Structures are given as structure tokens and as C-alpha cells.
Amino acid sequence: MRLPSVFLALPLLAIAVPAAAQDEQTPGAEEEAQAATVSAGGISIGGEAVLLSDYRYRGISRSDESPAALASLTVSAPGGLYAGARGTTLRDIEDFGDVQLDLYAGYGRQLGLGTSIDAGLLYYYFPDGDGETDYFEP
User: Fold this and answer.
1) Which of 33, 37, 70, 74 is nearest to 54 (CA)?
2) Distances from the Cα of 21 to the Cαs of 4, 70, 93, in angstroms?
3) For residues 74 and 132, which has the higher predicted lDDT (pLDDT)?
4) b/e string for 1-21 if b means 16 or more Cβ within 10 A?
5) What share of the chain is helix, strand, coil (3-state, %, to 5)?
6) Spatial separation of the C-alpha atoms in residues 128 and 23, rounded to whole Å
7) I need a labelling partner for 9 at 20 to 30 A (CA). Which of 20, 38, 62, 112 fits?
8) Where does residue 86 rank: exposed (0-12), middle (13-18), buried (19+ CB within 10 A)?
């Protein structure tokens, strides 16, 4: 018996980290967030749980203009390395299923005078996706 993929994202909802569900806030979009960060021995672990009125990705609604849940967890090292995971519920997205899981890792650093550098790799995973829906993005 196969569990619905939304259950794969539920463990992420129990923990929480700043995550960008979209680049710009949608006019009228409401969100509620719970964030937490723990630091030990220079390594920090942070997480975030967010309720969105509409999950948009690059301007296109992936929640069919309905509410969505997003949760993330990030582990950061003092030298600038970080890795994490983010899960978001989807709705009525043909070929993609009901959940989007993102795995990411990278290196980020403040250079000074308001300048920073950040480079990483992001893997989009759709557990219920039909065909080749999963992909990497730098």
C-alpha cells in the first residue's frame, strides 16, 4: 500500500528555516510563519513552517490559487556551507503530483559593504510526478 506523497512532507512541517516560496510577494497574499534556529558548536540548524494563501513559483500558481503549506530545514556551517530540504503542498498540477520536495546545498558568504556571494545546487523532486518531472538547477 502506497501512502499519499503529502505524508512525505509532514515531517518537514514539524521543523522549520527561512525559505523563498516565491521571489515576490503576491498582492493580497497572506502568510503565517513559525521559524526557529538552533546553534551548537558553530553549526546552526534552522527551520520554518509557513501557511500560504497561494503558492506561486515564478509567477505561476502551483496550488491552484488555494492555500498551501511549506516547511523547510537548513543546516549551516560556520565557513559558509549549507544544505537543506523544503517541502510544499501542491494542488491540481498535472504531471507533478501533490508535493514538491526541494533538496539544496551551497556556499554563501558576506564579502562586506553590503555585498555577498552565494552559489548552490537545487534538486526539485516530485514524489508522485508522472514521467521526468524531477530536475536539478544551479
Assistant:
1) 70
2) 22, 8, 16
3) 74
4) eeeebbebbeebbebbbebeb
5) 5, 55, 40
6) 25
7) 38
8) buried
Query: What CA–CA distance (Å, rounded) separates 4 from 138?
Result: 29
* pLDDT tier at 130, thresholds 50, 70, 90: confident
Confidence of residue 28 (pLDDT cuts 50, 70, 90): very low
Phi-psi region of 12 (alpha: psi -120 to 50; beta: other; left: phi over 0): alpha
DSSP class of residue 35?
A: E
Q: Are 70 and 87 in contact (CB under 8 A)?
A: yes
Each residue's pLDDT tens digit, 60-116: 888 999 999 999 999 999 999 999 999 999 986 788 889 999 999 999 999 989 999
∠ CA 32-127-63, rounded to 5°: 40
d(CA 64, CA 73): 25
Question: Do the beta carbons of residue 111 and residue 93 sit within 8 Å?
Answer: no
